[in-house]
């Protein structure tokens, strides 16, 4: 078990994570092996073909999560999951790429992990049975909820001042956020579109929003 973040009670790496092996990686480490407690003896002996950046080659999963926990960003991501949305895995992957604090899944606990590309092993995931429970938990932590949907009353994210500490709330592909989620949010933002389509893919929208936070608060 990895250490839980004090600001995220109940958060933990995803249970039953997706398959770890990829087609990229490195072979066995030349001997003598480095004297580093973060390194995994099995990976040193057999090679490391995981979906991790080179910096983390041969590190144990626990060591990687512990290091990421020292520098996670102040934003979280939440997704409503009522229809087993296939986008959730991709959203988790983007959350890992932009180093979100926690991914909150509202509704069904089961979700398709294929799109996560193994990043669910390194990303804290927290479950809430319904919108009401999620909103109550965020209020208890004094974490503003920012609903993301291109519906009436939304402010353009391109010109909005995004809170540094917040949780971005996304809805299902197609129907978008539930009325309860929008009504309970502290802010409501949308991504400006210029073509004929009504909306963009949910996982693409999530990646844009997370990067918008990076531009305002972490870009250097």
Automatic annotation (TrEMBL):
Residues 1-43 are annotated as: Disordered. Keywords: Methyltransferase, Transferase. GO terms for biological process: methylation; RNA processing. It comes from the Bacteria. The keyword Methyltransferase applies. InterPro entries: Alpha/beta_knot_MTases (IPR029028), rRNA_Methyltransferase (IPR051259), SpoU_MeTrfase (IPR001537), tRNA_m1G_MTases_N (IPR029026). GO terms for molecular function: RNA binding; RNA methyltransferase activity. This is rRNA methyltransferase. It comes from Curtobacterium luteum.
């Amino acid at each position: 078990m990895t250490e839980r973040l004090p600001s995220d009670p109940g958060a933990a790496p995803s249970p039953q994570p997706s398959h770890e092996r990829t087609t990229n990686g490195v072979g066995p480490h030349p001997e003598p092996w480095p004297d580093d407690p973060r390194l995994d003896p099995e990976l040193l002996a057999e090679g490391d073909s995981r979906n991790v950046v080179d910096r983390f080659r041969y590190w144990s999963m626990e060591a990687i999560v512990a290091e990421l926990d020292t520098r996670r960003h102040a934003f979280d991501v939440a997704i409503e999951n009522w229809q087993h949305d296939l986008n959730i895995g991709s959203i988790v992957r983007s959350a890992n790429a932009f180093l979100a604090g926690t991914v909150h899944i509202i509704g069904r606990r089961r979700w398709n992990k294929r799109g996560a590309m193994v990043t669910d092993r390194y990303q804290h995931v927290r479950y809430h049975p319904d919108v009401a429970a999620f909103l109550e938990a965020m209020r208890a932590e004094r974490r503003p909820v920012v609903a993301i949907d291109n519906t009436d009353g939304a402010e353009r994210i391109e010109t909005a001042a995004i809170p540094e500490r917040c949780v971005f709330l996304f809805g299902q592909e197609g129907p978008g956020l539930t009325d309860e989620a929008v009504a309970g949010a502290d802010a409501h933002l949308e991504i400006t579109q210029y073509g004929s389509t009504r909306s963009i893919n949910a996982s693409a929208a999530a990646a844009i929003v997370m990067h918008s936070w990076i531009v305002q608060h972490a870009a250097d």
